[in-house]
From TrEMBL:
GO terms for biological process: negative regulation of DNA-templated transcription; response to stress. It comes from the Bacteria. Residues 31-163 form the HTH marR-type domain. InterPro entries: HpaR/FarR, HTH_MarR-typ, MarR/SlyA-like, WH-like_DNA-bd_sf, WH_DNA-bd_sf. Residues 1-21 have a biased composition (Basic and acidic residues). Residues 1-26 are annotated as: Disordered. SUPFAM superfamilies: Winged helix' DNA-binding domain. This is Homoprotocatechuate degradation operon regulator HpaR. One of its GO terms (molecular function) is DNA binding.
Length: 174
């Protein structure tokens, strides 16, 4: 049985002004762990889109691939991996299935036969167009619930966090 994560800020807040890490001795309470908050937020968002994906028999990873290819037209596998946040080994298992289903095309790079270029097939493009209206409607519902201004602030904050944490090699001394 799945348990919902606690979200009671008053209960999670330290009573004496100490940080959660100090109160626990080593770590802040699990409910306040930033990675878990990001995962809970991701799940709250993707749960709105999952029924659409299921109705079209598409996985979350396949949808990310289709969406990236719809924007980029074509790209090499390593670049696709970075854009989709899918490990190259996982991508190498997903792409042949999508190719066999007629959703994507794969071809070798003329200049370097070791490199594979991936693009949307006509069937994949049609699926993106078909699902586009449904996903935009779901996104519109999210905006209605969250609020456009809050969503814009969230986008800016996430962009800032990504830029800061993805910045120069943090292991080098300043």
């Amino acid at each position: 049985m799945a348990h919902s994560a606690p979200h009671d800020r008053k209960r999670d807040a330290p009573l004496d002004g100490r940080s959660g890490a100090e109160e626990q001795g080593v770590m802040r309470p699990f409910s306040q762990a930033i990675p878990m908050k990001f995962l809970r937020a991701r799940e709250a968002v993707i749960s709105r889109f999952r029924p659409i994906l299921h109705s079209h028999q598409i996985t979350e990873q396949q949808w990310r691939i289709l969406r990236v290819l719809a924007d980029l037209r074509e790209t090499e596998i390593l670049s696709l991996s970075e854009w989709c946040l899918i490990h190259p080994a996982s991508l190498s298992r997903i792409l042949p299935k999508m190719d066999a289903a007629g959703l994507i095309n794969r071809r070798t790079n003329d200049a370097d036969k070791r490199r594979v270029i991936v693009s949307l097939a006509d069937k994949g493009r049609a699926l993106v167009e078909e699902m586009g209206a449904e996903t935009e409607a779901a996104f519109g519902e999210l905006i209605s619930e969250i609020g456009e201004e809050r969503l814009e602030r969230l986008n800016r904050a996430l962009d800032d966090i990504i830029a800061i944490l993805s910045g120069p090699d943090r292991s080098r001394p300043s």
